[in-house]
Amino acid sequence: MTDKKAEMAQIELVIGKILRIGVAVSATLLIIGMLLAIIHGGTGYSEYQFPTTFTEIFSGIAAFKAGAVIMLGLFCLILTPVLRVVVSIYAFAKEGDYLYVWITVIVLVILIIGMVIGFIKK
């Protein structure tokens, strides 16, 4: 196997690990959050209130609030494919496939714009 093929195989393994680890971390956080909700009899927040900023999430985690742990798990689940897109940009650049680099950069920009719009609409 040539060096370039070996390197591409290594990058594909990294992408696979990112996806597996991201889903495992997310699932673990969600399960811990649900267990905390069962133990405490609720999420730690009122019916229509939940943490939406990193400050609220981390302060809620410090206070062992189930809703904050669940929100962190959801954030990790959303972050997983975004990280995959970032690593894909690097992989396509290493392959020299610049058309796909630009397509993937456009996808990343669309994801970032969507996150910014979601943050602003809050």
Mean pLDDT level? 89
**Number of alpha- plus pi-helical segments:** 4
Largest sheet: none
Shape: elongated
For the structure shown, list the relevant keywords.
122 residues, mainly alpha, elongated
Description:
With 122 residues, this protein is mainly α. The chain has one domain. The protein contains four helices and no strands. Helix 1 (3-40) runs antiparallel to helix 3 and helix 2 (54-62) packs across helix 3 (66-95). The longest helix has 38 residues, at 3-40. The protein is elongated and about 55 Å long. The termini are far apart.
Concise synopsis of the structure shown:
With 122 residues, the protein is mainly α.
Describe the protein's topology:
Layout: H1 3-40, H2 54-62, H3 66-95, H4 98-121
Helix pairs in contact: 1-3, 2-3, 3-4
